[in-house]
Specification:
By secondary structure, the protein is of the alpha/beta class. The protein has 14 helices and 19 strands. Strand 5 and strand 6 form a beta hairpin. 50% of the residues are buried.
Length: 421
C-alpha cells in the first residue's frame, strides 16, 4: 500500500491545509495502537502551532489507551534518545513556520521503516479504546539530554570564539549553554523564538545571518542548526559556508573510521578523499533515515548528508546537530575551520528543480543520463531524481569545471522539461 501522508521524514504540511488537528490526533491514536498502547514520549519545536498539535497528538495517544509523556520543546535527537515504547516529534524540521508535522522513532530511537509507516496509516481510522490512557507532562528532559551530549561528544573548547545560530528553534538556549560549559566564548543569534520566526532568515537553511555575524565579530567559526536540531552546517572565519560533505570529511579523518555512509548527492571530491585514505563509502538514497539504515546494516558509526544531517552512532541513535557541532570543534586541533575543510576537494555542482506533470522518468531520458555519465568517465556525473515531496524532478550536474557542470545541467533539464513538463 502506498503511503498517503508520510513523506521522506514523517508527516508534514501547511497547518490548516495539508495538516489538521484532526489528522494529528488520528496519528497519535494510530501510532499508539501500532506500538502496543504503551508509553509515547512527545517533544516539539518552537512553532506557534506546536502546543495545539502536541495536545491533539497526546489526546490521540490517550484515546487509544496509551500514555503520552509530553516534554514540550526539545530537539528531535533528544526525543530519539529518550523514546519510550515510541517517540514522536511535532515538527516540520527546516520548513518555514506555517508548516508543521509529526515524525516518529521506535523504542530503540530508530526512524520508522516505510512498511511501519504504512501500517500506521492503515490504523488512522481505528476507534477509541474502551479504557482511556493518560497524559503526563515532564520537565527534566532538556537537562538529561544536555548532560548526555556534553559528556559524550564534548571536549575542551577553551579559547574558541564562535557564533551559534539557533534558527529560533529547539536549540535556542541549549546549544549556546553546551559550548559555554566546554569553555568556548559564545555569541548566540536567532535564539529568541516567538512561534513565527523559526527558520526565517536564519539557521542551516539560510546562513546569511551567521556569515554576517562571524565576519563582523571576527569569530573563529560559526555553527548553524535547523529548527528542530537534526541538521547542522558551519561557516569559517572568512564567512565561507562549510557544507555537510566537508564536515563529514573532517570527522571521518579525525575519528579514524573505516566506512562512511552518504547519499547520492554527496560531492565526488568526498569520494576521492575517502579513496585516498582507504575509507569505504556506502551510497544510499536521499534521506538521513536511509543513511541510518545503511550504518546499522554495516554496523558502522559515521554517515551524513550534504544538507547537514551528520550521524555518529557511538553513544547515540540518530543524527544530532549539537553532537556533530561539538565533534567538529573538537576535530580542529589547532587548525582553522578553513584549513580543516580544505582537505576535501569540491567539484562544482549545479542543480535545477524542473516542474513536471508526471515524475515517471521515461527510458529515453534515462538512456541520455547513462550515456552522459559514461562520457564523463568519473570526472563528473549527472543525477536525475523525482522529488519525494514536490511536483518537480531534481537535476544535478557535477564536473571539475563549473562551466561544464552548468551546461550539463541545462541540457538535461531541458530534456526533462520536454519529456515530462
Amino acid at each position: 500500500m502506498a503511503r498517503q501522508y508520510f513523506g521522506t521524514d514523517g508527516v508534514r504540511g501547511v497547518v490548516g491545509q495539508d495538516l489538521s488537528r484532526d489528522l494529528v490526533r488520528r496519528l497519535g491514536r494510530a501510532a499508539a495502537v501500532w506500538s502496543g498502547r504503551g508509553r509515547v514520549f512527545v517533544g516539539r519545536d518552537t512553532r506557534g502551532s506546536g502546543p495545539d498539535l502536541e495536545e491533539a497528538f497526546a489526546e490521540g495517544v490517550a484515546s487509544a489507551g496509551g500514555n503520552a509523556v509530553v516534554a514540550g520543546v526539545l530537539p528531535t535527537p533528544a526525543v530519539a534518545l529518550l523514546a519510550l515504547d515510541l517517540g514522536a516529534v511535532i515538527s516540520a524540521s527546516h520548513n518555514p513556520p506555517q508548516y508543521n508535522g509529526v515524525k516518529f522513532f521506535d523504542a530503540d530511537g530508530r526512524k520508522l521503516s516505510d512498511a511501519s509507516e504504512e501500517e500506521i496509516e492503515a490504523l488512522l481510522d481505528a476507534p477509541p479504546a474502551d479504557s482511556q490512557g493518560a497524559i503526563d507532562h515532564v520537565g527534566v528532559a532538556t537537562d538529561s539530554y544536555l548532560e548526555h551530549i556534553v559528556e559524550r561528544f564534548g571536549s575542551d573548547l577553551t579559547g574558541l570564539r564562535l557564533a551559534v545560530d539557533c534558527a529560533n528553534g529547539a536549540y535556542s538556549g541549549i546549544a549556546p549553554q553546551a559550548f559555554e560549559q566546554l569553555g568556548a566564548e559564545v555569541t548566540a543569534v536567532a535564539a529568541d523564538p516567538d512561534g513565527t520566526n523559526i527558520n526565517v532568515g536564519c539557521g542551516a537553511t539560510d546562513l546569511s545571518l551567521l556569515q554576517r555575524t562571524v565576519t563582523a565579530g571576527g569569530y573563529d567559526l560559526g555553527i548553524a542548526f535547523d529548527g528542530d536540531g537534526d541538521r547542522m552546517l558551519a561557516v569559517d572565519a572568512e564567512g565561507d559556508a562549510i557544507d555537510g560533505d566537508q564536515i563529514l570529511a573532517v570527522l571521518a579523518l579525525h575519528l579514524g573510521v573505516d566506512l562512511v555512509a552518504v547519499t547520492v548527492m554527496t560531492n565526488l571530491g568526498f569520494h576521492q578523499l575517502m579513496g585516498e585514505h582507504g575509507i569505504e563509502v556506502v551510497v544510499t538514497d536521499v534521506g538521513d533515515r536511509y543513511v541510518l539504515k545503511a550504518l546499522r546494516e554495516r554496523e558502522a558509526l559515521l554517515g551524513g548528508e550534504q544538507s547537514g544531517h551528520i550521524i555518529y552512532l557511538r553513544d547515540h541513535v540518530t543524527g544530532d546537530g549539537l553532537a556533530a557541532a561539538l565533534l567538529l570543534c573538537g576535530a580542529l586541533q589547532g587548525r582553522t575551520l578553513h584549513e580543516a575543510a580544505a582537505v576535501m576537494p569540491r567539484y562544482p555542482q549545479v542543480q535545477e528543480n524542473v516542474p513536471v506533470v508526471t515524475k515517471s522518468l521515461p527510458p529515453a531520458l534515462l538512456d541520455v543520463v547513462e550515456r552522459s555519465n559514461e562520457e564523463l568517465s568519473g570526472e563528473g556525473r549527472v543525477l536525475v531524481r523525482p522529488s519525494g515531496t514536490e511536483p518537480v524532478v531534481r537535476v544535478l550536474a557535477e564536473a571539475r569545471d563549473f562551466q561544464k557542470a552548468t551546461l550539463l545541467c541545462a541540457r538535461i533539464s531541458d530534456l526533462v522539461r520536454r519529456e515530462l513538463g
